[in-house]
Amino acid sequence: MRLFFVSLYNSYYVEQGIPDLSEFGDVYEFGYGLGKDKPPTSGIIRKEFQREILYHLSPMKDSTLASMLVRPGPADAMRNAKFEGGGLGIDRVVRVYIKTEQDRVLKQAQQEAMVRRWPPREVFCIESEHSPFFSAPERLADMLIKAMELKHGNVVGPE
After folding, report:
1. Residues 69 and 104 in one domain
2. CA-to-CA distance for 49 and 52, rounded, in angstroms?
3. What domain range is 27 assigned to?
4. Are residues 123 and 89 in the same domain?
5. Both 89 and 141 in a single domain?
6. CA-based torsion, 18, 81, 108, 148: positive or negative
7. Average pLDDT of the chain?
8. Which helix (H) or strand (E) holds 108?
9. Cα–Cα distance between 100 and 128 in angstroms, integer?
């Protein structure tokens, strides 16, 4: 029965794009802005796990600096992100997704689920962990330039 529950739990997380870091143990530190009797309002990966999970391919000096600067994020940001209403011009903005192939936060299946939920025009792949701006900055910059060069169709902007 436990295996069935874990399987359902993991597939839910995959489809929602929510990071499941259970393989690393108790890694989250939560904030309870609405009180301890309410669900957490923010979360952060504990400092002792940040290098292993977020920055394992990054230079040590970059991961050290990043660990000093990282702050808690909203607990439900990934699960509750919705863009409804076609009249808002949302589809006028060209979306790209950069898939990080060695990511320990968002596994490949989770990244693919995110792409299916809100398909971008283009998917780029980078051999990086969750933080390509540290582990592969030149390659990331190249991808961002390629994203800018995509034909933008109806996007409003300078001609």
Report:
1. no
2. 5
3. 22-77
4. yes
5. yes
6. negative
7. 83
8. helix 108-117
9. 5
